[in-house]
């Protein structure tokens, strides 16, 4: 399957639910991609291709809670690198660093374990949809800058 076919498969697999979880929001449901091994493989292939083209050196992949957890580990495995979690506040054990951010429909806090990323490591953040996560990942940047780490928003569908 070529890249265009993979993109078309993913577009046709995502369902939209208007006014969910609140009025004015269009929620894009990716569960059909997860249910279909061909679609999931296509998603991972496209993410991998994008990362290899745009990021010559990646030390870690970080998944943004929670749908970044669905794609991040598979990508980390393909690259032979580690995967770390960026979770909603209160979900990680041990010492953490935390930032607040705004969603389309409210506010939230995310955190990462203080020992998850070493200073200077290059980290790519994976999420399923840029619109559902941290706006432009500015607030995630605070977490990584505080550790002297280079990061980038690598992939969103």
Describe the model.
- Helices cover 34% and strands 30% of the residues.
- The protein has one domain: Rossmann fold.
- Residues 130-136 have low confidence and may be disordered.
- It is flat and about 40 Å long.
- It is α/β, with parallel strands linked by helices and 157 residues long.
- A hairpin with a 2-residue loop joins strand 5 and strand 6.
Please bin the fraction of helical residues: 25-40%
Please provide the ordered H/E string of secondary-structure elements.
HEEHHEHEEEEHE
Q: State the CATH class.
A: Alpha Beta
Enumerate how many helices there are, as a single number.
5
Spatially, the strands of the biggest sheet line up as: 5-6-4-3-7-8
GO cellular component, one term: cytoplasm
Subunit structure: Homodimer.
GO molecular function: adenine binding; adenine phosphoribosyltransferase activity; AMP binding
Pfam families: Pribosyltran
């Amino acid at each position: 399957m070529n890249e265009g076919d993979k993109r078309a498969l993913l577009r046709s697999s995502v369902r939209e639910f208007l006014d969910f979880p609140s009025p004015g929001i269009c929620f894009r449901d990716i569960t059909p991609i997860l249910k279909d091994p061909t679609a999931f493989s296509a998603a991972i292939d496209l993410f991998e291709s994008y990362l290899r083209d745009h990021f010559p050196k990646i030390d870690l992949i970080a998944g943004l809670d929670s749908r970044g957890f669905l794609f991040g580990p598979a990508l980390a495995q393909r690259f032979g690198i580690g995967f770390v979690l960026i979770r909603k506040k209160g979900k990680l054990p041990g010492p953490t660093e935390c930032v607040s951010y705004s969603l389309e429909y409210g506010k939230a806090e995310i955190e990462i374990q203080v020992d998850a990323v070493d200073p200077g490591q290059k980290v790519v953040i994976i999420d399923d949809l840029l619109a559902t996560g941290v706006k432009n990942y500015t607030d995630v940047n605070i977490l990584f800058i505080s550790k002297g780490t280079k990061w980038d928003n690598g992939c969103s569908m």
